[in-house]
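tokens incoming
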């Protein structure tokens, strides 16, 4: 009996080692990277992104990332930059109807919009973004679009603090993309979404007993980025012990060969599966005590306070994508709706654009090829905001 068990264990161990050296020889299983993630590159586009950065560091050949690298915010369009439909004025705002005037005309009021690609207006022309359409529609109102592709609302808050004072806003609108809520949980974008295109580091906040604590961008230059990918230990030290997605599965990010699980087929697959969990965002919004949900709420509250310090009103806009709308349609309301209502009960102004988008989807192609709002989708969002503002003005 014992001898049989020993033989079986040895046979299983042999099979495990054969699979380790054959099936996982290239570090992938069924087209997916398998732990240990050393280096933490999960897709061909990330490998290419790092290669471009490395070429820049070694030869001075500027990659796309160098155009927008920002040591404080992670990445950000530079003032007076860009080309074609994507140009930025002296304040770094995306130019829509016209560049912003440096001195605000006394007859004008200025709205500053902050957020991610759904606010910036990826995949549409300068005049087709919802910000530009509202600018063109409202007399006496100028809209300053400070949205940046792939931002979390933590970066949007930091950009508001840094770049909005000279804009003298009377209102600040934060565009919140529910499916991208996880961006606030990490200092390295591919940790939360392995399919992220770029190698991109960012600042983040953590919650303490006294409120939000800022964890600055873990890299200060593109040269620093390269150094972190040359040493897994340096990468881990830069992200910090409390980086949630590394903390969840330390074996998956330990330097290659330094953990017992790295020397087994089953161990590597198990570490990979462990690391992949916890990314269902619905509980973040539906459980009041969820750590990520509380962090999101705290960042929104702090953004409202930052707007108030600028003498501006605040409006939180929920800007769902196609999958979010599928969820809202199937369940009668979005998984983020209760969270939004709770913030509204605290006295914050909120607007969920789901209803407007769902009402228009039968007759309008709302989304462009890569999932952002199409020109028509941006028009639906703009009209939904305008209708809300008019209802507010009428006291409804």
């Amino acid at each position: 009996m014992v001898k049989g068990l020993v033989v079986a264990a040895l046979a299983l161990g042999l099979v495990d080692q054969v699979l380790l050296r054959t099936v996982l020889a290239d570090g992938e299983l069924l087209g997916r990277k398998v732990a240990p993630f050393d280096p933490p590159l999960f897709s061909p586009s990330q490998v290419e992104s790092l290669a471009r950065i490395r070429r820049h560091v070694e030869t001075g050949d500027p990659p796309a990332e160098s155009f927008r690298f920002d040591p404080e915010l992670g990445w950000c369009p530079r003032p007076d930059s860009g080309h074609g439909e994507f140009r930025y004025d002296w304040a770094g705002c995306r130019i829509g109807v016209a560049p912003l005037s440096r001195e605000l005309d006394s007859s004008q009021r200025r709205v500053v919009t902050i957020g991610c690609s759904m606010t910036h207006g990826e995949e549409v022309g300068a005049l087709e973004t919802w910000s530009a359409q509202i600018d063109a529609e409202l007399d006496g109102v100028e809209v300053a679009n400070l949205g940046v592709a792939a931002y979390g609302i933590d970066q949007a808050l930091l950009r508001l603090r840094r770049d909005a004072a000279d804009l003298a806003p009377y209102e600040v609108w934060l565009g919140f993309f529910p499916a991208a809520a996880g961006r606030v949980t990490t200092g390295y974008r591919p940790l939360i979404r392995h399919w992220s295109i770029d190698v991109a580091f960012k600042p983040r906040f953590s919650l303490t007993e006294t409120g939000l604590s800022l964890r600055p961008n873990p890299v200060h230059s593109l040269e620093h980025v390269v150094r972190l990918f040359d040493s897994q230990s340096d990468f881990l030290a830069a992200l910090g012990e409390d980086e949630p997605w590394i903390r969840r599965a330390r074996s998956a990010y330990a330097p290659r060969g330094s953990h017992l699980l790295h020397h087994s087929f089953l161990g590597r697959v198990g570490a990979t599966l462990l690391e992949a969990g916890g990314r269902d965002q619905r509980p973040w919004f539906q459980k009041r005590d969820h750590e990520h949900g509380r962090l999101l709420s705290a960042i929104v509250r702090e953004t409202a306070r930052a707007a108030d310090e600028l003498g501006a009103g605040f409006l939180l806009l929920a800007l769902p994508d196609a999958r979010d709308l599928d969820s809202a349609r199937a369940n009668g309301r979005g998984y983020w709706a209760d969270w939004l209502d709770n913030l509204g009960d605290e006295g914050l102004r909120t607007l969920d654009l789901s209803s407007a988008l769902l009402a228009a989807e039968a007759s309008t192609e709302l989304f462009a090829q890569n999932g952002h709002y199409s020109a028509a989708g941006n028009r639906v969002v703009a009209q939904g905001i305008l209708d809300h503002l008019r209802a507010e003005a009428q006291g409804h």
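note: The radius of gyration is 23 Å.
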